[in-house]
Amino acid sequence: MIDLRHHGDSEVGGGLIDFAVNVRTGTPPAWLAERIRASVADLAAYPDPSAARAAVAARHGRAVGEVLLTAGAAEAFVLLARVVAPRRAVVVHPQFTEPEAALRAAGHAVERVVLGGDFALDPSAVPDDADLVMLGNPTNPTSVLHPAEAVAALARPGRLVVVDEAFMDCVPGEPASLAGRLPAGVAVIRSLTKTWGLAGLRAGYVLAEPGLIGRLAEAQPLWAVSTPALAAIEACCAPDAVAEADAWAAAMGAERDRLAAALTGRGLHVVPRPAASFLCVRLPDALGVRALLRQRGYAVRRGDTFPGLGPDWLRIAVRDAAAHDGLLKALADLGV
Ligand SMILES: Cc1ncc(COP(=O)(O)O)c(C=O)c1O
């Protein structure tokens, strides 16, 4: 039985160098922390989401009625699970396990479509009569980015396709995002917690047609998104912030590709064409290697809690060159 509720945050602590949690290091940036601090002056009032909602709509070229702000992507999964009544719900794996956990917690049966090979999306693997399909893009833990066309092709009358784009801001220019297009029958979930270092604040949103947004809003607790989170959402959707994230994504991508080349050079299998801020790596006895790395002070994310991976897989977060050198040295000491 896979523990769907296992996440990278339970793999860190105790002074370990963190390659397990996919939150950008050195975040939140000072200007963003200052905006959040300033919002404390408004805490006596109940949160007013209107400015942040408008900022999200403007960032993606959507109407305000197509936006619901949430306490992170995690809340969005729960709200969706509460409002849908699927006859055949399909979760495309390997992917982040909370969408499936939320569906099950809401009492829905879930079918897994497990991608093979290099984890490219195979639309023909999704049963024709699935009326709810959930997938990630780019996908945690594989780092695979599916083309926008392939994801959009899953949409059809009578089906809701939910795309978790929590890591889409790792991809410069976001060419594969459906946030700006929002084809009929597609809902997009976004998170601000990774790139901006706001995991503790809880900030995300859903983009979908206004009818679904209304149903999700009905299911959401009142004032679910706090005033500091609203300040952060508004700030992170401003054009300067989007440009800053884009520049980071390009630099992160170069560092990621160097780490991938170094690992590949040692004979490890790295899932090709990684697009997000982590690598998915296969090596013999990955769990044993992970345990020995922990003894040397390094935390990497186990892969065996993701349906479709197994004990030979690890997920490694992208950090900076110095941190990568340290990890590569620790691996070399283990003969990897
Ligand atoms: C793919 C993916 N989606 C969503 C989330 C949850 O994001 P949030 O912090 O916004 O709830 C995570 C967190 O690990 C994730 O990896």
Automatic annotation (TrEMBL):
Entry-linked CDD domains: AAT_like
Transmembrane residue ranges: none
Cited Pfam families: Aminotran_1_2
GO molecular function: lyase activity; pyridoxal phosphate binding; transaminase activity
Keyword annotations: Aminotransferase, Lyase, Pyridoxal phosphate, Transferase
Gene3D superfamilies, per the entry: Aspartate Aminotransferase, domain 1, Type I PLP-dependent aspartate aminotransferase-like (Major domain)
Enzyme Commission number, as recorded: 2.6.1.-
CC cofactor: pyridoxal 5'-phosphate
Residue ranges annotated for the Aminotransferase class I/classII large domain, each copy included: 17-329
Family, as annotated: Belongs to the class-I pyridoxal-phosphate-dependent aminotransferase family.
Name of the protein: Aminotransferase
Organism of derivation: Actinomadura rubteroloni
Gene that specifies this protein: cobD
